[in-house]
């Protein structure tokens, strides 16, 4: 139903952990830890197409030509605040990645994103980019974040979210059909306040315990 650029996770561990996040009785500590764990599991999928080269080594038995990552530069870009919760999981899989930050919050009335911070690695235009945010609701924040990264000259951009609404997926695929989108799950719809239903509530508040 969606384009080949939309990758929806079908792993039971991701589904199970998302169900714990959805539960309103999950503690801040558990919520934060599980967001990080899902971030790690989803990074495994989002890095599936990283290019490999080969190198010569000696095993204890003989010489061998073995696969190795071809050293392409990679950066993870969390959308503040809630995206910060996923960074640790990404870095556990790709420890040499650089981290760029985009600060955006959604105006609660217009639902439009407002930018308040941006700091990127100097050579960001040469890097493969993984933008991370737990929630893709209207898609306004991710749409803007992808636009900023394109303005920096980035060409290979992926977006990773835990929960997506159909509205958000459609917006990203319409405005950025070149971007690969990785979703932990796709939910039913948005409510009148722009929250994902059934969703997990306000991801930033639940990660940082600010409610
Ligand atoms: C949340 C979420 C996304 C955005 C999704 O952030 O983390 O960035 O809303 O909504 P959208 O797809 O309709 O733009 P929020 O604005 O609540 O800021 P926070 O991370 O600081 O809590
Ligand atoms: N932002 C959130 O944190 N949760 C939603 O459901 C929608 C936007």
Give a nutshell description of this structure.
With 211 residues, this protein is α/β, with parallel strands linked by helices.
Helices and strands, with pairings:
Blueprint lengths: L5 E3 L3 H11 L5 H19 L5 E7 L4 E7 L4 E7 L3 H10 L4 E2 L1 E6 L6 E7 L8 E5 L2 E2 L3 H12 L5 E8 L1 H10 L4 E7 L2 E2 L5 E2 L5 H6 L3
Parallel strand pairs: 1-11, 4-5, 4-6, 4-8, 8-10, 9-10, 10-11
Antiparallel strand pairs: 2-3, 6-7, 12-13
Helix pairs in contact: 1-2, 2-3
Bound molecules: 1-O-pyrophosphono-5-O-phosphono-alpha-D-ribofuranose and uracil.
1-O-pyrophosphono-5-O-phosphono-alpha-D-ribofuranose binds next to strand 4, strand 6, strand 9, helix 4 and helix 6.
Can you give a write-up of this model?
With 211 residues, the protein is of the alpha/beta class. Helix content is 32%, strand content 31%. The protein has 6 helices and 13 strands. Strands 1, 4, 5, 6, 7, 8, 9, 10 and 11 form a 9-stranded mixed sheet that branches. It has a two-stranded antiparallel ribbon with strand order 2-3. A two-stranded antiparallel ribbon has the order 12-13. Strand 2 and strand 3 form a beta hairpin. Helix 1 packs antiparallel against helix 2 and helix 2 crosses helix 3. The longest helix has 19 residues. It is globular. 34% of the residues are buried. The model has no long low-confidence stretch (mean pLDDT 96). Bound molecules: 1-O-pyrophosphono-5-O-phosphono-alpha-D-ribofuranose and uracil (URA). The site of 1-O-pyrophosphono-5-O-phosphono-alpha-D-ribofuranose has 23 residues, from strand 4, strand 6, strand 9, helix 4 and helix 6.
